[in-house]
Amino acid sequence: GQNIDQPTEMTATEGAIVQINCTYQTSGFNGLFWYQQHAGEAPTFLSYNVLDGLEEKGRFSSFLSRSKGYSYLLLKELQMKDSASYLCAPMDSNYQLIWGAGTKLIIKP
Amino acid sequence: NAGVTQTPKFRVLKTGQSMTLLCAQDMNHEYMYWYRQDPGMGLRLIHYSVGEGTTAKGEVPDGYNVSRLKKQNFLLGLESAAPSQTSVYFCASSDGSGSTGELFFGEGSRLTVL
């Protein structure tokens, strides 16, 4: 079966760094997406990885290891506005996204 | 640029009533999707479309129907609403698969079935 595992909730301090992990099992693999979702709002695209390694985009970076079925999202210099849920979504062999339940990130001053 | 627009934003139904959610996108995207999001669960795909005039079932299609008569519109229908269909519904569109498969979401439609 297809399965996504990510922590339910994490807490971090403003200005710090946090890493959100995601492990996955899918039928085939065509890349992995990370989305951000603020409470009561729609998800918005953060990153896409299809090859192993680190992709950096400003304060956010995303890492992928296909052999381990593992990805992480790294957020640096945390700001209060980063309080949101972060959704891990690998794409299977049919190009369908398989969504995790998301990690709720709470930023404290 | 409006992007993806969903109507209505909120709706309360009684069990057995019917309704249609409308999704419209102005980005000329081929792919359109309807998801539902429930607390503690990931987004679940209801139905999707890979082009005008085509539709396909997703993970949880029962109790829903869809139509894609025009490329820019994707309608989700509930013929006989049930309390289990209380949820937040998101429409999304994309250009295609791979890195161009980034999904653009509408603001969501919150449906309550009493």
Distance between the termini of chain B: 36 Å
Give the rounded overall mean pLDDT of chain A.
95
Largest sheet of chain B: 7 strands, mixed
User: In terms of per-residue confidence, which ranges of chain A show pLDDT below 50 for 5 or more consecutive residues?
Assistant: none
Structure description:
The complex is a heterodimer of chains A (109) and B (114). Chain A is 0% helix and 53% strand. Chain A is built from no helices and 10 strands. In chain A, the strands form 2 sheets. A 5-stranded antiparallel beta sheet of chain A has the order 1-3-8-7-6, with no helix packed on it. In chain A, strands 2-10-9-4-5 form a 5-stranded mixed beta sheet, with no helix packed on it. Chain A is globular, with a radius of gyration of 13 Å. The termini of chain A are far apart. In chain A, 37% of the residues are buried. By secondary structure, chain B is mainly beta. Chain B contains no helices and 11 strands. In chain B, strands 2, 4, 5, 6, 9, 10 and 11 form a 7-stranded mixed beta sheet that branches. A 4-stranded antiparallel beta sheet of chain B has the order 1-3-8-7, with no helix packed on it. Chain B is globular, with a radius of gyration of 13 Å. Chain B starts with a strand and ends with a strand. The model of chain B has no long low-confidence stretch (mean pLDDT 93). Chains A and B meet through strand 5 of A and strand 10 of B.
List keywords for this structure.
heterodimer, A: 109 residues, mainly beta, 5-stranded antiparallel β-sheet, 5-stranded mixed β-sheet, 10 strands, globular, B: 114 residues, 7-stranded mixed β-sheet, 4-stranded antiparallel β-sheet, 0% helix, 47% strand
